[in-house]
Amino acid sequence: MTVILLRHGVSTSNTARTLAGRSTGVELTERGEEQARAVAERLAGLPIERIVHSPLLRCQRTVAPLAEKFGLEPVFDDRLVEVDYGEWTGRPIAELLEEPLWKVVQRHASGAVFPGGEGLAQVQARAVAAIREHDRALATQHGRDALWVACTHGDVIKSVLADALGIHLDGFQRILVEPASLSVVRYTPTAPYVWRLNDTGADLSALAASGAQQQAASSSTPGPEVSGPVPGGELGNSASADNGNAERRDSL
């Protein structure tokens, strides 16, 4: 089974440089909406079987063009919701830089618990469980390799990628996940394999070809083994059109 981990497009909180967390009403910017449409075009030639997303508005908006193109009804999963940043929610990133917990989040993520919120270890546990559960369900349903999309948030995606890469959660800040980026993980009976990471390019045709090749081979042989971030993930240079600032430090 192969999952495309999609981070939502640039949001109004990104450009305001605040930590949105689970705040309601955080919309995509005009640039974010363009990114959502571009993602739908990028994935148009692939055999997408399911779309799962965080219940927050910015993820709903991001998958809407994709769902329309494929004629699929998106499914939300609460386990893919943004980190509960507790008392940090809604605060400016510049202000959070002064918090003692900031360095813990950067260097010892597995021990970081946001005041009044949840710990990053909890986030990884729930997110990985959700991804693997949907993956198993698709395997049972189709009896073959299936390609699906999970749209969620920066820290959530980074925690799933850390698990797939077999690295400790304390190293997850070394992974960059920009708005509207695609990261691809293929889960096999023996181990997950990371095929793409923070991909904001254009050509994804290799995913369809690889899936078909693996399906054909699966009956006889195993598949082939194939600056600092902040809570929430990176803003990315693509948001500069919204605020004229190419600085990469931001929240989700």
Radius of gyration (CA) equals: 17 Å
Shape: globular
Order of helices and strands: EHHEHEHHHEHEEHH
The tally of beta strands, per DSSP, is 6
Q: Which strand order does the major sheet show?
A: 3-2-4-1-5-6
Give average pLDDT, whole number: 85
Description:
This protein is 38% helix and 13% strand. By secondary structure, the chain is of the alpha/beta class. A 6-stranded mixed sheet has the order 3-2-4-1-5-6, with helices on both faces. Helix 3 links the parallel strand 2 (48-53) and strand 3. The radius of gyration is 17 Å and the shape is globular.
What is this structure, in a nutshell?
This protein is an alpha/beta fold and 252 residues long.
Topology:
Blueprint: E1 2-7, H1 12-16, H2 30-43, E2 48-53, H3 57-70, E3 75-76, H4 93-96, H5 101-107, H6 120-142, E4 147-152, H7 154-165, E5 182-187, E6 192-199, H8 205-217, H9 240-243
Parallel strand pairs: 1-4, 2-3, 2-4
Antiparallel strand pairs: 1-5, 5-6
Helix pairs in contact: 2-3, 6-7
List keywords for this structure.
252 residues, alpha/beta, 6-stranded mixed β-sheet, 6 strands, 13% strand, disordered C terminus
